[in-house]
Design a protein that fits this description.
Strand content: under 5%
Mean pLDDT: 90
Number of strands: 0
InterPro entries: DUF885
Number of helices: 7
Shape: extended
Low-confidence stretches: none
Pfam family, one: DUF885
Distance between the termini: 59 Å
């Protein structure tokens, strides 16, 4: 493939035109860029592609995840027990996660309807990101917000969610 038709050449297009300098300088930079892409980048990409397809991928396992290994299902369950501090079947944990994602999505969609937002959830998130009133103006304001969320909203609810809080560090 011609170097100019690759993604690696994009910095030599419009961004280069915005730089100060003569037309001759830009022409030289584009020429050098094409040469480096063709002589160094493309051969390196081909070598990587050959390595991945001929050596790496054939040596990988056919199945993925810990559970595909000998004793993997038991190991995965022990990891869940360690991280969650409760012994739950992995399928139950998965189902709980799906339920929570659905619950949060429904709540977000309710908020969207309440405020009259007409787009989808992705558009709503983009909309929120662009709203300055939702962004802290200073580092102190950001830290105060985190402090409020952590110590006034989350920490009081922890005992109702976890039976053993003695292992948690006191970060106050």
């Amino acid at each position: 493939m011609e170097p100019q038709r690759t993604v690696y050449y994009e910095p030599f297009l419009d961004p280069l035109d915005r730089l100060s300098g003569s037309q001759e300088l830009r022409k030289n930079l584009r020429s050098q860029g094409s040469y480096v892409i063709q002589s160094r980048v493309q051969p390196s990409i081909r070598r990587l592609q050959n390595f991945l397809s001929l050596r790496y991928l054939p040596a990988t396992r056919k199945d993925y995840g810990i559970s595909s290994l000998d004793g993997g299902a038991e190991y995965y369950r022990s990891l869940l027990r360690w991280h969650l501090s409760i012994d739950l079947d992995p399928d139950v944990v998965f189902d709980l996660g799906v339920e929570q994602v659905d619950r949060i999505r429904r709540q977000m969609e309710n908020v969207m309807r309440y405020i009259g937002f007409g787009g989808n959830l992705t558009a709503f998130f983009r909309h929120l990101q662009g709203q300055k009133q939702f962004h802290p103006k200073t580092e102190t304001e950001m830290l105060d917000s985190f402090y409020t969320i952590l110590f006034q909203r989350i920490q009081p609810r922890l005992p109702s969610l976890f039976s053993n809080l003695t292992a948690l560090p006191n970060i106050r």
